[in-house]
Design goal:
InterPro entries: Thioredoxin-like_sf (IPR036249). The chain is α+β, with helices and mostly antiparallel strands. The chain is 25% helix and 19% strand. It is built from two helices and four strands; from the N terminus they run E-H-E-E-E-H. A hairpin with a 3-residue loop joins strand 3 and strand 4. The longest helix has 14 residues. The structure holds FE2/S2 (inorganic) cluster.
Length: 108
């Protein structure tokens, strides 16, 4: 059994050279919203959910991206309602939000 039941990592990488990066899509706001929703719902902590910042996850073309482990499910999201759905459906209930899953062929 792992320490956390689910662990979500948000890429917050910012590039100054004009190349795509998740920070251009307000990834920070998505991360902060997720963290507060997980806390509000009492999901945070051991045997629960952990929300972490990450640097580039190498799938920049699909940004902003986040990945949930141990399920290894990759998401792209647009707004807070997308984050709410990921939290409620996947992080809380273990159901993947298919409409937000990042296609396998999206890379850097
Ligand atoms: S900048 Fe976010 S995955 Fe690369």
């Amino acid at each position: 059994m792992s320490y956390f039941q689910r662990h979500i990592f948000f890429c917050l990488n910012q590039r100054e050279n004009g190349e795509a990066s998740c920070a251009q899509h307000d990834a920070q706001a998505g991360f902060e919203h997720c963290k507060s929703r997980v806390k509000q719902l009492g999901l945070a902590g051991k045997d629960g959910v952990r929300v972490n910042k990450a640097g580039c996850l190498d799938r920049c073309a699909g940004g902003p991206v986040a990945v949930v482990y141990p399920d290894a499910v990759w998401y792209t999201y647009v707004d807070q309602s997308d984050i709410d759905e990921i939290v409620e459906s996947h992080l809380k209930n273990g159901q993947v939000v298919e409409r937000l899953v990042l296609p396998d062929n999206v890379g850097r």
